[in-house]
Amino acid sequence: MTRTPAGRLFRTATGHDLVLTRTFRAPAADVWASLTESERTARWFGPWEGDGTPGRTIRVQMAYEEQQPWCDVHIDACEPQRRLAVSMVDSYGTWLLELSLTEADGTTELRFVQHLTNLEGIAEVGAGWEYYLDMLVAARDGAARPEFDDYHPAMQPYYRALATEVATPHA
């Protein structure tokens, strides 16, 4: 299956923001539950354990990665049904992630942002988040899980082009 990448990349004062969105025909409370309840995150990312309150660190299993590793995730901010900001630490470094929800007319938009200090590995990272967010959509719809091979390496050229575009000064 051919997937169309939808991520965008924006220059910020501290680096770049990788932004991806998904839209759900559901109230924000239900989408929020898919992002924050362990039994529901297990369906598309992995289960988690610990005290998930702001300022605390939980452990999250990346259930769809090889070896299914666990990693630490610090809860930087949690505004129920609106915004969740976390710092995830794994063998690749620290990932600064932010998820925000906006509900209107029975539809909720998820805006996923990864705050980047550099663009190294953006081709792999962008394809990976596309995969995980489509896993979220499939889990919520009860649809078959997408195949990672449909994202990587197929989406790498798109994300490399985004990086080149934002790194190139405009005249």
UniProtKB/TrEMBL annotation:
Transmembrane segments: none annotated. SUPFAM superfamilies: Bet v1-like. Residues 25-138 form the Activator of Hsp90 ATPase homologue 1/2-like C-terminal domain. InterPro entries: ASHA1/2-like_C (IPR013538), START-like_dom_sf (IPR023393). Belongs to the AHA1 family. This is Uncharacterized protein YndB with AHSA1/START domain.
